[in-house]
Amino acid sequence: MSEQEGNAPITNPQLIKEFSINSPKVVSRLIHTVFEEENALYIFPNLVGNYFMSEIIEIEVEGEEQYIWVTCPSEAEFRKNINSNQVYAVVSFADGVKIQFTGVKMELLPHGKVQALRLPMPARLVRLQRRNHARLLVDKELEDVLHIPEDVIQNYELIDISLGGCGMQVSGQPKDYQVGLIIRNATLHLNDGLKPIQVALIVRNIFVDTDGTGFTCLGCAMEMLNKSDETRFQKFILYNEQRQRKARRGSF
Q1: Residues near 193 by Cβ (< 8 Å), separated by ≥ 6?
Q2: In this predicted structure, what is the pLDDT of residue 131?
Q3: If you average pLDDT over residues 229-237, what whole number do you get?
Q4: CA 122 from chain center: how many Å?
Q5: What is the model's pTM?
Q6: Lowest-confidence range among 18-27, 56-65, 73-82, 221-230?
């Protein structure tokens, strides 16, 4: 099994460089996705080697800081060695894609009536893409791809986009939206000389941005009204994935 497929942290420096993400919005979206999907965490206290399994029980906002509360290991050998300067790696999966991050502070603290581990929200993480379902961070060439009628959502900013959905920052409070909400009459403008693609967006998760602005963010699944447009959009995603990968390689 390859590093990309297993639950062990990847160690290949080239892969870590190529797939690192340091956008607070995207990092937050992925961590919330792990939480919403109730995916297991594989926590490696010494970065590699032995690990224990855990899960997220809460994502806490404390001023401008955010913390991830996770369940304690049942194994005594792990519990007795936990300290506030603990170096660790965490591996999980979001939207079926492997993610990982590292940290240097792991606190064993009371959480309600039980003991739990509190980890700081990572500043960056590594996400290993699936080639046929790449999720693109929005740059200048992609910021105007999605159009939503003003009478549906007045102010929004696209964060990332893939064949399966998108993440966006929107106006209003989390209570103004609900999971399962369908946003109709949205369109994708690919700048390929053809007509826009009509899509419906289905809200899958809702959370507050972690960059200090407090904006509401939506994670949405996307359905195309005309299935024949999927191949066209896939080519668009593939082209831009390759463009961004070349740009990242050139930046190091």
Answers
A1: none
A2: 43
A3: 86
A4: 12
A5: 0.60
A6: 73-82
Q: For 151, what's the count of Cα atoms within 13 Å in the CB-facing half-sphere?
A: 2
130: amino acid identity, one letter = R
- Mapped onto helix, strand or coil, the DSSP state of residue 206 is strand
Token pair 């995916």 is found at 39
Phi first, then psi: give them for residue 133, nearest 5 degrees.
Answer: -145, 40
Residue corresponding to tokens 């997220």: 56
Using pLDDT thresholds of 50, 70 and 90, give the confidence band for residue 213: low
- Please state, rounded to an integer, the average pLDDT across all residues of the chain: 85
What confidence score (pLDDT) does residue 164 get? Answer: 83
CA-based Rg of the chain, rounded to a whole angstrom?
Answer: 19
Contact call for residues 127 and 21 (beta carbons, < 8 A): yes
Amino acid at 24: P
Buried (b) or exposed (e) across 221-231, using 16+ Cβ within 10 A?
Answer: ebebeeeebee
**pLDDT of res. 214:** 66
Nearest partner of 135 among 169, 159, 102, 170, judged by Cα: 159
Confidence of residue 210 (pLDDT cuts 50, 70, 90): low
The two structure tokens encoding residue 70: 């996770």
- 178 vs 220: CA distance, rounded Å: 11
Nearest to 180 by CA among 197, 159, 200: 200
Exposed/middle/buried for residue 249 (C-beta within 10 Å: 0-12, 13-18, 19+): exposed
Integer Cα distance of 110 and 194 in angstroms: 57
Closest by CA to 44, choosing from 32, 59, 54, is: 54
Q: In whole angstroms, give the CA distance from residue 123 to residue 146.
A: 27
